[in-house]
Amino acid sequence: MTNASSATTINATEAAHFGGLAAEWWDPKGSSAMLHKLNPVRLGFIRSAVDAHFGGDGKARYPLLGKSALDVGCGAGLLCEPLARMGAEVTGVDAAPENIDAATAHAALSGLSITYRAGEIAAQGLGQFDIVSSMEVIEHVNDPAVFIGELKRHMKPDGLLLLSTPNRTPASRIFLVEAAERLGQVPRGTHDWDKFLTPDELTALLNDAGIEILDMQGIAFSPMSGLHLSSNMALNYILSARLRG
Amino acid sequence: MNHKADVIIIGGGLIGLTQALALAAHGITSHVIDRADQASMLQAGFDGRTFAISSSSYKLFEAIGLGDALAGKGCPIEKIWVSDSLKPGSLDFAPAEDDGFLGQMFESRFLRGVLYNAALESDAIQLHMPANITHKSQDSGRASVHLDDGKVLTADLMIVAEGRQSQTREEMGINIAHWQYDHSAMVGAIFHEHSHNNIAYEIFYPSGPFAVLPMLDADDGRHRSAIVWSVDAADAPGYMKLSPRGYAAELEKAMGGILGQVEIAAPLSSYKLGFHHAANITAERLVLIGDSAHGIHPIAGQGLNLGLRDVAALTEVLVDGMRLGLDFGDAQLLDRYSRWRSIDTLLIAVSTDGLNRLFSIPGKTASAVRRFGMAMVQRAAPAKAFFMAEARGESGALPKLLQGVAV
């Protein structure tokens, strides 16, 4: 399949790299250990964003009941499954078929009903969703502006967009690319630092696409409290956004 | 047939049932399995067993909706009077005026009844008792338990609350650090001539601590207290063979006549004292709570309260996880529970163990050191505040339920 957007958003080398990791995705002590530790932190942000946007009280077990969600670059379903448990009808898309195989198998194990699709987001013929999310993906695509356009196309008019990505700073270079990959916290070859977007750059890209940011927070690390939400965005940041009205 | 709930709780004792009720209060469903037939246990008369419920444990019960059932049924402890062999230099712990009481004494049988009835009424709790487990397993997908009536129960997480001799803990190969004290505790209840005035007495003898804990007066108006009397393990059988009258005479002697004449109010029982502490309190889709995780010397009445702190912390961890859409067996959640509880339980275990050892050293010099130490604690406000908070169960990072609020 050779359509224009697959050439721009999927990076073939990177997709193959993640496919190789698929089986290990769900092992909390495996090569995705950092993602498992990151997950509760970013879910904390997502839960607050969901309650703020859709008017929840922070306590309900199923705040997304009746809502649809699309996770782009879903990996083996680390975000899809929590969204499904919160009550959403979830569709996960990933470029690597191996990831989708791992995700499908794990959802069955978890007793969750989630629609998984392998391939390019633009080629899926999907409609619009209440929530569109893409965690740690935009730093891997060839053209972030085109990618944001694809995300926007799948948002309902009152939909919520959730993005997280590493910042391009000396700290992220040392911590995420050099140290974490060498220490085995993150698989080697995961990150290409030069492609990281700063919060300002990402804000400008979203703005150009007619998307306004609702909230943005850093995900920081400290030896005492581990990974946590913070005003410090030097390493990684997560944001919620909506279409400008 | 397959029955799915959010969690499976193995053990339907005070800790297991409280765990089920605390989760149910937040919409989390459970299977509770116990070998014993609770209903028939509840029909028995007063067995002499009592628990000192710390004020933070009581707040937990209130926060999960048991306040009405418990109100007025416990005897408040307003003061703790500590003494070294009834020698001068005693130590009082009394809360400040507006600070409430230090804890309440409840009959074990009564607490069990309140918890059991609340669990029976809860839609979120399925009780399987009496029931025997023929097989249990956990894997990356689920925890499951097969019962001898053919039922298969599954859940995201298995919570082990089966007490000191935890079979599941052994099957999981979880090591425990443990030792036996050369002491046995004799427990029971007494009638006594004078009112206890809501004072708990802790008298430290070289042979072991002796605690007299205030209970509500009996229906006929007679004054009652519970006793926990530690003696050399070799001496316990001799004490237990005494006639009720002979035993009462020994008690009067040990109490120095503080409460006047004494009479035995319930059958006595005795058990060897030990200390144990599990090396790990979590495994794949499994957590240990209560005595399955740690058992301490009952010197400060902290065993059940420590277990209830496990319940409060685990409830908060699981409810927080649920609201993030995480699997109840998620390794990150179990890690949080483990980090939260490990330091706290070890600190309390070691400090009560140390306190016991300190008071167990015979001889005049040791006694002088103890009395000096007690006098120092009496004068040093921060140390006293620490002991008070510890007795109340209020030190350490406090789970919300122990502050009396739902998660």
How do the helices and strands line up, and which of them pair or pack?
The complex is a heterodimer of chains A (245) and B (407).
Chain A: H1 4-9, H2 12-21, H3 33-54, E1 68-72, H4 80-85, E2 89-94, H5 97-110, E3 115-118, E4 129-135, H6 144-153, E5 155-166, H7 170-182, H8 199-208, E6 211-222, E7 226-230, E8 236-243
Parallel strand pairs in A: 1-2, 1-4, 2-3, 4-5
Antiparallel strand pairs in A: 5-8, 6-7, 6-8
Chain B: E1 2-4, E2 7-10, H1 14-24, E3 30-33, H2 38-43, E4 50-54, H3 55-63, H4 67-70, E5 75-77, E6 79-84, E7 91-93, E8 103-107, H5 108-121, E9 125-128, E10 133-138, E11 143-147, E12 152-155, E13 157-160, H6 167-171, E14 176-192, E15 199-205, E16 208-215, E17 223-232, H7 236-241, H8 244-255, E18 262-264, E19 269-278, E20 282-283, E21 286-288, E22 294-295, H9 303-323, H10 331-360, H11 364-379, H12 381-392
Parallel strand pairs in B: 1-12, 2-3, 2-13, 3-9, 6-15, 13-21
Antiparallel strand pairs in B: 4-8, 5-8, 6-7, 10-11, 11-12, 14-17, 14-18, 14-19, 15-16, 16-17, 19-22, 20-21
Helix pairs in contact in B: 1-5, 1-9, 9-10
Question: What would you say this structure looks like, in words?
Answer:
The complex is a heterodimer of chains A (245) and B (407). An eight-stranded mixed beta sheet of chain A has the order 3-2-1-4-5-8-6-7. In chain A, 37% of the residues lie in helices and 24% in strands. The relative contact order of chain A is 0.15. Chain A has 245 residues and is of the alpha/beta class. The radius of gyration of chain A is 17 Å and the shape is globular. The model of chain A is unreliable at 1-7 (pLDDT under 50). Chain A starts with a helix and ends with a strand. By secondary structure, chain B is of the alpha/beta class. Chain B has one domain (2-177, 274-403): FAD/NAD(P)-binding domain (3-Layer(bba) Sandwich). Chain B has twelve helices and 22 strands. In chain B, strands 6, 7, 14, 15, 16, 17, 18, 19 and 22 form a nine-stranded mixed beta sheet that branches. In chain B, strand 6 and strand 7 (91-93) form a beta hairpin. In chain B, helix 1 (14-24) runs parallel beside helix 9 and helix 9 runs antiparallel to helix 10. The model of chain B is unreliable at 376-380 (pLDDT under 50). Classes of the chains: A alpha/beta (245), B alpha/beta (407). At the A-B interface, helix 3 and helix 4 of A face helix 9 and helix 10 of B.
